[in-house]
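Researcher: Good morning. I'm working through a list of sequences from a screen, and I'd like to move beyond sequence-only analysis. For each chain I'm collecting a predicted structure so we can compare shapes side by side. This is the next one on the list. No need for commentary yet; just the structure.
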Amino acid sequence: MSTLTYAVHDSMTMLRRNLKHAIRYPAVGFGSAMTPILMLLLFVYAFGDSIGAGIGGGGRDAYVNYLTPGIIVMGVAAGSMSTSIAVCSDMTEGIINRFRTMNITRSSFMTGHVIGSVVQTMVCMVLVLVVGVALAVGFRSSASPLEWLAAAGLLVAIAFAVTWLAAALGLKSKTVESASNKPLLIQFLPFLGSAFVPADSMSPGLRWFAENQPFTPMTETLRGLLCGSEIGDNGWISLAWCAGLTLVGYVWSRSLFNSTTKR
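Model: Good morning. Structure tokens for this chain:
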């Protein structure tokens, strides 16, 4: 077999390992989903009427449709926490030393973690939990099947990007506890964007930050696909951010992994 074939085969083996771990220990994945779900319930039922009246005059029902795309993006970002924990656990509990003695492709370890986390995030957190709760509280989408497919593709790109960053943070962490805390910035960054209220309603400094951080165009693109609002240039900007974050996370995590395993 060629080198590429070996790499793909070993990556699939690591992917199966990580998916089995996710099935066996679902608490980490479900725990990460609780924060965006609780935020959804809090803002819909505690603030939905007042915020909805302020941003469009539609009340709670209109605000649910505005809020849900932002919560979905937050859910995807929250899913990266499990990657950071899993990578740090493998690096600190000795299993990586066993892998080093085996004839496996070095890149397969990180690839298996990242792809496994993306699958777990998309299937467990986004499709089952976050979207399910959003539909239960009144979210209704006007998207066509093609727009739903485009939305799913965007979410996969976002998950892939933030998961590589979380993998690097897991490699950087010395303990599982610190690995669970470091991705919190990724998880809550959508909160400082247009997920909950429009960016143009914020104070000047916060508005500038919201308009120039990655999760705002991502949220606006998803909102346009699912709810029919104007997307404009946000689609291309979102893809550019995803590509850039993926590259940074991949290079950073690969550098950390190589330097760690050479010791």
